[in-house]
Amino acid sequence: MILIGGIAAVAANWGHLPKALRPGAYPFRLGVASGDPLTTGFIIWTRLAPRPEEQRGGMPSEPVAVDWEVASDDAFRTVVARGRATAFPELAHSVHVDVQGLQPGGHYWYRFASMGEQSETGKAQTLPDPRSHVARVRFAALGCQHYETGYYTALRHAAEEELDFIYHFGDYIYEYDVGIGMEVFRQPAALIRRYRGGAPSTLEDYRQRYAQTKESLSLQKAHASTTWFCTYDDHEVQNNWVSDHDQGGSPPDMFLLRRNAALQAWYEHMPVRDMPPIVSGRPPDCRRHAQWGGLLNAHFLNTRLYRSDQPCGDGPKPLCPETRAPALQVLGKTQEEWLADGLKASPCTWDLIAQQIMVAPVDFLSDDGDARYNMDSWAAYETARNRLFDMIEARPSGNAMIVTGDMHENWACDLIHKERVIASEIVSTSITSDGDGSVMQVGRDKVMKANPFVKWTNSRRGYVVSEVTPDAWVSHYRVMDAVTTRNMPAYTAASWGVGVGERGLRRI
Ligand SMILES: [Fe+2]
Questions:
Q1: pLDDT, tens digit, for every residue of 339-384?
Q2: Can you give 293-362 as a three-state secondary structure string?
Q3: How far apart are the CA of 144 and the centre of ligand 1, in A?
Q4: DSSP string, 58-108
Q5: How do residues 231-290 score in pLDDT, each as one tens digit?
Q6: Residue 432 alpha carbon to ligand 1 centre in Å
Q7: In 3D, which of 88, 84, 95, 85 has the Cα closest to residue 61?
Q8: Fewest CB within 10 angstroms: 72, 78, 99, 490, which?
């Protein structure tokens, strides 16, 4: 491997390599990533793992130095920041560098060097000055990437979209046992590859899931292409967990052991600004705020960690009286107040509320026509949903848009409060979860008829690219006809948008 630029000089001077390492082992097998941008910096991430399939990624139990540099050009002719970080075995030899002192609205390139090798180059952007004029923001929302049910082709397509950022709404890994996707998911899905090892419950188990997932070059390309905002949903820990409740009703103390291990592993593998849980003593809180000039004010929420347990025992069912209990929380009081303050004082034309679970209260109808709601969504938390809608109504001007994941289907919905449309919700399908899917799930025509606020739905895999300008918001539903076949092309199944000051989605 040829080393060039400043990193080469530093790496060549080390003279010390861990004894347990085989010479020539490439430590950047899990790629690089950037995230959580500010106006003057961002986090850059990597994890040393020359043999990801092995315990500790093939690394010894000792700290290892990692050099990093950031340049204002992709050839690294103008290096604007550099330094040396330490990859600790306690954090799976992951590195989170908080790069500072950069220019607002800047485009940068970064890379790492360690153990005599150099990483691939990643691209990152700082946020623009909040007082600046921003003509356009283009971002993708994606997530739900069950490794066993499809190839990550959608991530390779997303890497080519020239995005200002990617929002990951969670389900980066799935905690299911190996080979059980077919029984658990709502639709039978062919399994095209297998997780190594069974259902994770310990830190090392979860690390192994991330390592295997991150070996995907398509995923690495998507991470290297732009800066991400990473949040987690349920499958980073366990299906439909909330707060200290798991799905099986385990004693909370026991579940917390698992949750803390899972979220520790999430932290170790994401380009996030949180303190390591091992240092802070609490789970990482993926709540974020970011602003693009006067154009876009983004709130990235956490709808798992502080939520009340699902009313009436979870599962799809009619709404029970408990769904109207005033004490029900989706965000928790602190996060709710934070969001209310952020929306009330919004200086931007558009507010993005990026979060995990569906807000529009869709009645999915049972086969015999009875009401059926997803109790693991805002539909089952009516009082909390009304408070969210009141916050949106309290915005000074412009529009709010909600962007959501979790459903493994594309949806375009208007959100109705006190009998009028107050915002719209764009739900992105999955990267792979549930397999190839279909143009429209069986029975969705009836669902649309029963829920007139649903404007469109589609059940292919992919992601949503949204383009935000001072005049309009347009979301493009990018899909592929299959994920169990390699190299499928992506195309736009539909585009839905809203003009500034208007209410209600229209097809573009
Ligand atoms: Fe999912």
A1: 999 999 999 999 999 999 999 999 999 888 789 999 999 999 999 9
A2: CCCEEEEECCCCCCCCCCHHHCCEECCCHHHHCCCCCCCCHHHHHHHHHHHHCCCCCEEEEECCCCCCCC
A3: 4
A4: G--SS-EEEEEEEESSTT-SSEEEEEEEEE-GGGTTEEEEEE-SPPTT-EE
A5: 999 999 999 999 999 988 899 999 999 999 999 999 999 999 988 887 788 899 999 999
A6: 9
A7: 88
A8: 78
Measured in angstroms, how far is the CA atom of residue 194 from the centroid of ligand 1?
17
Residue 373, both tokens: 């709601």
- Residue length, the chain? 508
Please give the distance, rounded to the nearest whole angstrom, from the Cα atom of residue 346 to the centre of ligand 1. Answer: 31
pLDDT at 454 > cutoff 60: yes
Residue given tokens 């109790």 in the structure block: 375
Are the C-beta atoms of residues 393 and 404 closer than 8 Å to each other? no
Neighbours of ion ligand 1 (CB under 5 A): 144, 171, 433
Q: How far, in Å, from the CA of 185 to the mean position of ligand 1? A: 9
Q: What is the largest CA-CA distance in the chain?
A: 72
Element (H, E) at 7: helix 5-12
Ligand 1 midpoint to CA 121 (Å): 29
Which amino acid does the sequence have at 475? S
247 Cα–ligand 1 center, Å: 15
Residue whose pair of structure tokens reads 């839905």 in the numeric block: 496
Domains present along the chain, CATH in parentheses: 5-125 (2.60.40.380), 137-507 (3.60.21.70)
Residue 449's nearest CA partner among 382, 359, 363 is: 363
Distance 325 CA to ligand 1 centre (A): 27
